[in-house]
Amino acid sequence: MPAAEIAKEMRPKGILRPVIEELAAESGAYIIISSSGSTADSALNSRRTAMAEAVKDSSHASQLDLDFYDRNRIASWVRDHVDLIPWVRSRIGKSFSGWQAYGSWSRVPAGSDKAYLLDDKARTKTAGTDDGDGLSAVEGINRIRNVLRKPGQVVRLVGLSGVGKTRFVEALFDPELGVEPLNPSLAIYTDIADGPDPQPRGLASDLVASSVRAILVVDNCPPEIHRQLSEIARASGKTISVITVEYDIREDQPEGTDVFSLETSSTELIEKLVRIRFPDVSQLDARTIAEFSGGNARIALALASTVKKSETLSSLNNTELFTRLFQQRHEHDAGLQQIAEACSLVYSFQGELLTDEEAELPVLGGLIGRNAVFTAAAELRRRDLLQQRWSVASYPTPCHRQ
Length: 402
Known about the structure:
The protein has 402 residues and is α/β, with parallel strands linked by helices. The protein has four domains: 3-78; 99-262, Rossmann fold (3-Layer(aba) Sandwich); 267-327; 334-401, Orthogonal Bundle (Arc Repressor Mutant, subunit A). The chain is 39% helix and 13% strand. The strands form three sheets. Strands 3-6-7-8-5-9-4 form a seven-stranded mixed β-sheet, sandwiched between helices. The protein has a three-stranded antiparallel β-sheet with strand order 10-12-11, with no helix packed on it. Helix 3 links the parallel strand 1 and strand 2 (65-69). The protein is elongated, with a radius of gyration of 27 Å.
């Protein structure tokens, strides 16, 4: 769009478009974007001059920002807003598989209140002796923000399944919580269970090589991948900070990493969550569900989803509530429950192989004299009673945990 065409676009028949006049009055911006070519500095200046000439008779011309972007400037702008890179690539058919910009990583259902629920319980534990019994959620969020704000820093967030680790990480970028939220335009997220391509190590290396500032968020991250990312983040020329999330049962602290442990929620907070997600559940039943869940949001929501209108759970004991959670409106399946009990004996198990020497499903089945462990594991995962993660040793081969 050369200078002559700019005048025609902004002033058809010699009259400034009313919408441009309105933008000027509101101290707005008028930007022309051309994807068909690239402009040298002199040509770029002539286009900007033509745009200024087109609005010179506007009474608010001095209040209007004007600019012209060719395809090179657009590409540079996208590189400066790293969270948009996955979105742009998806729009042009060259997506990064498994990578996302900032958003609802915890998959809060559409229409639900997305506000982060807080209580005064000390839910965030650290290795610091000065932190006593731990930090409140807001204190923990602020502490982690201060770490990740600096390039080259690494955080490991661990905790039991269902305590809200992913939602907690989302809150690090939420301006409604605490002070000085992290910039969401720097966030790039993946869940290792989604089999990201490129793998986290490759993307981290590319970001550092390109001197791109980013905050890398890696969910369900095994220790080996965390170690790789930590080495890259802390290397010379560092531009990224990293937070990894995992159910970690070990006591070791990775080198160069600030480790935070997220504890279970209070009964009151879980009750509030159930009431928000399932407004038809009575307050009494919400309290029953919260107490049964032991502070585990995933268990509470799974159990609440089984409650029908005009139905109550308050008269059920813990055994009956467990049966309700396990069956989820299905008929009782003694074989499935027996397999689930066998699977729960271990922290995780290889969930695909049936004949290889590394196959663990036949071993679990052998404990109870059953063969259909693979099918049962798939059903348990469908009921959200079992999670899938990826073993770095056999990536991308999944293993499962209950």
